[in-house]
Amino acid sequence: MPLVRIELCNFKSYRGLQVIGPFKHFTSVIGPNGAGKSNLMDAISFVLGVKSAQLRSSQLKDLVYRGRRLAKAPVDGSEPTQDQENDDEDDGAEDQRDGSAKKAWVLAVYEDAEKKEWLFQRTISTTGASEYRLNNQVVTYAAYNTALISHNILVKAKNFLVFQGDVEAVASQSPRELTRLIEQISGSLELAAEYDKAKEAQERATENATFNFTKRRGIAGEIRQYKEQKGEAERFEGLCEERDQLILRRILYKLFHIEKALEANARDIQTKSRALAGLRKEQQNNDNALEAARAEQAKARSAVVKEERKVKKAEKSIESKASEPELVATDEKIKHSTRKVHNAKALHEQVEKDEERQRAKLDNLRRDLISTQKAADEAAEAHRRASQYSTSLSAESLAEYRSLKASASVLAVPERQSLDTLGREEKTALRTLNQLKAKFEEMETRRNKLNEDATSQGERKNELEEKHSSLQADLTRAKQEYDKHQSERTRISRLETETNEKLADVYQRLLQAGVDRTESEREIKLKETLSNLQRVFPGVRGRVVDLCKPTQRKYETAVSVILGRNIDAVVVDEEKTAIECIEYLRTQRAGQATFLPLDTISVKPVNDKYRSFAKGARLAVDVIQYEPAVERAMQHACGNALVCDTLEVAKYVCWEKGQEVKAVTLDGTVIHKSGLMTGGRSTHGSGKKWEEKDVQGLIRLRDTLKSQLQELSRSKLRGKADENIIAEIARLESAITLAKDDLSALKLRYNGTKDELKHHERELKKLAPELKKAQAAHTTLTAQIAALRAVVDEAENGVFASFCTKIGVKDIREYEERQLKVAEEESQARLRYDQQIARLTHQARFEEEQLQVTQERLTTLLRTRQEEETKVVELEAQKQQIQTEIAEAETTLESMREGLNELNNIQEEKSKVVEQAKKTHARSAKVLDQALKEIGLKNDEIEKLALERSASYRKCRLEDVRLPLLRGNLKNVPMEENLREEVAMAVDEDEEGTQRPKKVQDYGIEIDFDALDDEERAANSSETLTGFDTSISQLNSEIERMAPNLKAIERLDDVEAKLADTEKEAEKARKDSKTARDQFNDVKRRRYELFTDAYNYIADRIDPVYKELTKGKSAPMGGVAYLSLEDSEEPYTAGIKYHAMPPMKRFRDMEQLSGGEKTMAALALLFAIHSYQPAPFFVLDEVDAALDNTNVAKIANYIRSHASDAFQFIVISLKGSLYERGHSLVGIYRDQDINSSRTLTLDVGAVFVCIFHLC
Asked: Where does the record place a coiled coil (predicted)?
């Protein structure tokens, strides 16, 4: 058994010496909350070297028992060990004084596979001192931990215990935390520091080797360059002399033809000036005639403008009257009143028909009432006469009848009494039946009347609904037309806005075209100046931008930003040449320029480490192509600046690595040495070259857009149309409102009639059963009376037999019926006629009331009709008055338009006169301007030639060119150009209006042109100058290409010695790099193997363990669990993802699982991890807290099935379904008398054996 028992003394809640155990393969620790179960877990952790922070205490001294009193003997009667007895003797007296211990210790008895016991003991005192003992020998913590590791008990990884709450933490841990856990289990975490150190050493060695390699390559390039420069200086002087002679002949050729051109232009100006006076006089006459014509035209235009204002004012007045709200409102009122008259007329006709119908009905009722009354009177008279002829008896017979009647009355007395009762009931039932019949007939009559009213009101409602629908359709069409106008106006406004934006863009581009032209001219002038400098000074090589070229197009923007202000700098060989060029630019007024002399410019050496500092970062000097002769200038312009592929690379170099270097991305973003970041963009070469055809295209587009704006302005809808539509919409809305009101009132009456009709229908339905019931009751009573009457009649027949024979009747009832029939018939007839008369009277009264209501309505309609007709007449008169005023205004407007047409004709005639005068004036002005322009061009040519001659003199003086002179000296020519002195008063006119040639300075110089031959004197063509320039350029180019360096031989030896030293350093760096790489790969391999061995084992075990824990009857296969690596090459640097899918559920993230599912998944992971290099025992503290009984049983079965001599489980639990499956139980309870935790141990297997034997 791995862990046999635990002995502890004064540890936390355990007071005194206590022995817990022995522990079996599967031992369950049970007990109530607060009894000390978790303290037992802390004791096991404590004795195995776990830190105090993980034992639910901030300090080790908190682990020592603090109680009320101290026990005098071991609480469980066990025998303490000898060492414990010795320790207890030292502090027994002190403990008994205050009940608190001064130290505590825990002893774990462990049995290895060879059945050898190992005693691990750890002691702690209240002062914080800690002591470790191994087999009763005091040892260091390192030796103590080594002994634990030898038994595969890893304290750092805690592979032998799971604290309370750790299960949930395992389920929710991140992938990186899971990686660290597996690193602790596998032991690869111990190689992490060595791995990082080896990796850093490899990077340093690689960087050093790259630096030395780059340095060696740079020195080899210098040697190659110096060897190439060695033979260039020998031909330099001869070529310079030849070039100077060509320059002198070119200057003489140019000056000779300048003198000839000055003389020819002066003669032409004198000839053309003589014709200016006549042209000016003719121009003055034409000016006077044009001014007079314009004055007349202005008078005519003023009159037209005044008349147009009057016409517009009159038009506006007419338009306002025609469209003013008063006229529109009048039209609307007329239409509304007309409709009301029409409606009143139609309604009046309908009501008259209703009146005739009601009057006819009333007359019929009255006639029926009279006829009924007459019939009633006749029936009464007939009954009276019939009663006179009825059978009569004598006095003796009548006395006998009465005597017999009295005798018969004592016979069948019960039947007579019942008959009387039923008779009264029959009368009551008959009366009720008659009342119900009368009520039923009255309600049927009212129902029929309501049906007729509902039908007429329904027809009227349909008419009003059709009218309302028609008005609504008209309103919808009017609104659609109005919306269409609004959308058209919106569309035109949008198009105007878009056209204006396009027009503004065109104006902006035209303005930009003008700026770009200026920029292009400046660029051309700069190139001409540079060409002159190269021609005059042999040491001028060119601009930086022309001397270098990016290796790829993607580097152009970055290189332009890096070069910055040096992009247009001029590279020269010597500082002296730069000074001469500056002086030349100043004298020629050719602008400013920056010069980079190769011999004196300061160049910092390029830091070779940046050539391989980061992936995606390159030195700027490495991404441009240039000639070796200008290398110093390029290094000065670029420095150590880096070209980075992306902004992230630039941030990595400057911010993360902290390098003080300028980094520029491919899109021009700059991170400066100071760390600031700005957006950079080169303007060199990015300007658009505007051509004349582009400008003309923009002008045409501008004119097109203007015409589109004019067309859109003409397409705008006038406001009058909208006003008419708005008026129509207002009229329709008003009519719809009236129709809605009428329809609502009619619907209200119609609904009331329908409701009343429904009420009568319901009453009739209720009354019909009552009537039927009354009829049935009356029939029943009649039958009962007939049966009783037969009994009574039989009794009377015996009494009245002889009497009936005597009077000659069949039976006494015949006599009585004959006498009574007359009275009864009379009564019934009277009742029937009375009912009919009452019904007819009631109906006639009702119809009279309805007729009166109809007549009142006719009166109201007639009055409304008359009022509206009067109102229509008044409105028509008002409208006629407004229209008369409009007609008068239109007549006046027509006469004003005729006057305006006459004035327009006069203005057109005046305009024709002005146009003719303009044409005459323009022709004379054109002739005069042409003459002046030709003279001006000649004077400009003289000025230009004089400036060219002065520039040539200055160039000769500046370049020390010795011109052959007949007279004068070049020193008389100033080095600075003074335009005022050279061309002052050049265009003054004389008193006759003529112009003289410009006077220019010749500085008293006369040149000897004998060096020129006749062919050169006769020919004045650009080809000759081009020939001179070509020859000079070829010589300059050849000289520039040579670029001799006289110091190259001296520096060659120094550079070769430097190369030898650099090669030694590079070889050493290469060896160091290889050694560091091998060491890193070895550490990496060992760490990878340790980690992957553990990971592969755990990954293979996790699914079977999870399946075994989760399988059941409903899911015999169990769930699915697996691990996945985020980085398969170096898995320990990334995370490990744990995936678990419970049985019969779809895949979800671990965070979305329930608490029980997380616990099962975490336990599966813990069991799988523990199975790799497992500890001999495994302590679990309430890991089943979140599980139900089913899952607890699964966990218990798993533990019991895997518990063995080599693998022991100690489980703290409160679930009966778990601890009932244990091999032994350790019960912990709280002894309140001594304030201490106590334990009881039960061997379940032995108990079962005893029970089996007893049974």
From this structure: 276-324, 348-382, 695-777, 837-948, 1045-1086
